[in-house]
Amino acid sequence: MTRDFQDKSVLITGATGGIGQATALAFARAGARLMLADLDAAAGAALVAQLRALGAEAQFHRTDVSREAEVAALAAATVTAYGRIDCAFNNAGIEIETTRITDCDESVFDRLMAVNVKGVWLCLKHQLKQMEAQGFGAIVNTASVAGLVAAPRLATYSASKHAVLGLTKSTAAEFAKQNIRINAVCPGVIRTPMYQRWVDADPAVTQRVAALHPAGRIGEPEEVAAVVLWLCSPAASFVTGHAHAVDGGYVVV
After folding, report:
1. Residues above pLDDT 90, as percent of the chain
2. Is the pLDDT of residue 247 over 90?
3. Is-catalytic flag, 82?
4. pLDDT at 1
5. How are beta strands 57-62 and 33-38 bridged, if at all?
6. Of the residues 82, 157, 195, 250, which is catalytic?
7. How remote is the C-alpha of 249 from its chain's centroid?
8. Considering the entire predicted model, what is its pTM?
9. Where are the beta strands (DSSP E) in 111-252?
10. Is 23 exposed, middle or buried (0-12, 13-18, 19+ CB in 10 A)?
11. Is the dihedral of CA 49, 29, 137, 82 positive or negative?
12. pLDDT at 2
């Protein structure tokens, strides 16, 4: 077991399921001290117990990332608990849209933008205030292959993930000389609860989706987590503003 993040303070939003949970476990095994954020307090408590069983320091702070006061409180709680924010993984996001744009309700558009775009913007705002004050930090935002290529029947979701990449690149350029790196992961289809809801609605989707990836399968949350840890590590010290596809080749064909 590597201890590359021994005693590092790591903040993760969208922490209780799928990619967030896998990343929390990976950071815990690497020695990090974790502040976890999500909406489901019961799931948060269960994950904290799991991480503490591994010997990790972990706390949960219920947070709606679309509300600035809650995001500010999350950043403050992390600093109170651990003294700083070494790394942040802004992973909270939703996917409530599978329709043509002409059928998409305005409330769906507003909710997607509030969580997927405003949520990342707010997290960056308050994490960067702390990282600027301490003089260092690494941030990874969760985008999607839908932020890199077209996503039919997911126009608003795709727009939100393109926006995440815009935030990532602009802030990376702005803060690079202050020893703060900001990157994004762009997962293809990953075996998460979000994916399972898709399969439950249409069991035939599994083969269709796997065929879209040259690797011939969908991805696992742990494969995304490994990239997040690398992007936060000293091994990626000259990498910033990058949109890192983790997609089995989806965007190259």
Report:
1. 86
2. yes
3. no
4. 44
5. parallel
6. 157
7. 20
8. 0.96
9. 137-142, 180-187, 243-246
10. buried
11. positive
12. 59
